[in-house]
């Protein structure tokens, strides 16, 4: 029988693994769109957007037009990758992704549930402050522990070689250690910390919407301690259809949080490029804005939506469903602290 903490740890790892496999092609395209290299497939820049002269709305119009094009550019980039690198190119970096996803999501959901017990003593129990702080703390912990894996994954996804010219994991590790030392594997971690706010906002909104949807489904009036991360450490979902309510809540909350905090994703990718001129998070944000304008800070946003929102929905759905499944099968001992 699994203990309460182990249940969330295992469920988080399963959810992350399933989502990573399904959305890997979109992740590869997203990373390449975020990168500064000019080899990614782009549309002709001589478009109608350049005819807009209004300084008041110019940036916002360009941002809309650029992201609208990128939604079509996803298919174009996928076709290009298949043509030049084969179908396996769509899964470039999937091995380190899977290696990183299991500990990352496991650590996150374990810490998220554990942290709530602590923050419930400081703030109003199961309030927005509790969910925000718990999510932020858990995000920072998992990002720090798994950053070397994500560093290697990003380098693999930015490699355009084919056949024997493909970049190998051992070479990345060797070259990075020889030139930068241990610190080299933590490039981009400061940008990950900037993304802590995104995770906090996401789960704060998610927990509120989750309760709203489940109350609607069952015509009840239950409070925020319905969270599967409450002190009982077992699922409070009433049936498997509640998973879809959780996925819907996750879709809305992730879209909002991603829009607010997206520039940190671009900064993190730039910091992990080989031979980069980017040195720190704020320096990268400033340099990208100076050289590329606000559009540069939102490069690949639509692709990020197409990948990250479904990815998060799958993670949450599988996670909540796994906790419910373990609970229904009698595999969880809520009195056990691991």
UniProtKB/TrEMBL annotation:
Q: Which GO terms describe its biological process?
A: pyrimidine nucleotide import into mitochondrion
**Can you name one GO molecular function term for this protein?**
pyrimidine nucleotide transmembrane transporter activity
Localization recorded for this chain is: Mitochondrion inner membrane
The answer to whether keyword Transport applies is yes
Signal peptide annotation: none
Q: Which organism is it from?
A: Schmidtea mediterranea
The family note in this entry says: Belongs to the mitochondrial carrier (TC 2.A.29) family.
Keyword match Transport = yes
Instruction: Tell me where the Solcar repeats sit in this chain.
Output: 3-118, 126-212, 241-325
**PANTHER family the record matches:** MITOCHONDRIAL CARRIER PROTEIN RIM2
Top-level lineage group = Eukaryota
Protein name according to UniProt? Slc25a-29
Q: GO CC annotations?
A: mitochondrial inner membrane
Q: Kindly give the membrane topology term recorded for this protein.
A: Multi-pass membrane protein
Q: Keywords assigned by UniProt?
A: Membrane, Mitochondrion, Mitochondrion inner membrane, Repeat, Transmembrane, Transmembrane helix, Transport
């Amino acid at each position: 029988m699994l203990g309460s903490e182990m249940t969330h740890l295992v469920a988080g790892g399963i959810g992350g693994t399933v989502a990573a496999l399904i959305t890997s092609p979109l992740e590869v395209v997203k990373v390449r769109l975020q990168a500064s290299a000019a080899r990614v497939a782009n549309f002709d820049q001589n478009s109608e957007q350049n005819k807009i002269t209004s300084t008041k709305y110019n940036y916002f119009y360009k941002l809309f037009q650029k992201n609208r094009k990128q939604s079509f550019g996803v298919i174009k980039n996928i076709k290009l990758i298949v043509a030049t690198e084969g179908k396996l190119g769509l899964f470039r970096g999937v091995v380190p992704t899977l290696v990183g996803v299991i500990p990352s999501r496991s650590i996150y959901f374990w810490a998220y549930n554990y942290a709530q017990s602590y923050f419930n003593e400081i703030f109003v129990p199961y309030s927005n402050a509790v969910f925000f702080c718990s999510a932020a703390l858990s995000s920072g912990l998992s990002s720090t522990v798994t950053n070397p894996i994500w560093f290697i994954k990003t380098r693999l996804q930015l490699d355009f070689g084919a056949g024997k010219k493909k970049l190998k994991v051992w070479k990345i590790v060797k070259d990075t250690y020889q030139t930068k030392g241990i610190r080299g594997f933590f490039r981009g971690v400061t940008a990950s910390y900037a993304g802590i706010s995104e995770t906090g906002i996401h789960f704060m909104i998610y927990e509120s919407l989750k309760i709203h949807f489940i109350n609607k489904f069952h015509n009840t009036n239950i409070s925020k301690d319905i969270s599967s991360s409450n002190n009982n450490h077992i699922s409070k979902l009433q049936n498997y259809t509640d998973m879809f309510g959780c996925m819907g809540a996750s879709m809305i909350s992730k879209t909002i949080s991603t829009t607010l905090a997206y520039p940190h994703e671009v900064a993190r990718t730039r910091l992990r490029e080989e031979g980069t001129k980017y040195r720190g998070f704020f320096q990268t944000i400033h340099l990208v804005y100076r050289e590329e304008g606000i559009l540069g800070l939102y490069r690949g946003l639509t692709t990020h939506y197409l990948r990250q929102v479904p990815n998060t929905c799958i993670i949450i759905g599988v996670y909540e469903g796994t906790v419910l499944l373990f609970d229904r099968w009698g595999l969880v001992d809520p009195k056990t602290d691991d």
